[in-house]
Amino acid sequence: MPNCSEPLACRSGCGACCIAPSITSPLPGMPQGKPAGVPCINLDAELRCKLFGRPERPGFCGGLQPSQEMCGETREQALTWLAHLEITTRPM
Fold this sequence. Notes:
Elements: H1 59-63, H2 68-71, H3 75-88
């Protein structure tokens, strides 16, 4: 997996970072966390985070910054990259 580069602005209509990874900490509407591959309940109809900028947004989410490596050129590339990251960082 490539090294991370400079952060990018989020791609409109993507939401890959709110779908592909698992989130083990509780979050509003998902007290048990979020399984990998499941859209976060806090995504709106445009696939934007309803918690962005709010104190209840999980630290994991704030720490996941979009980059060229992570986002690729398309939403599908971002979903693939993040799914691979999920698999390679899964505890044994």
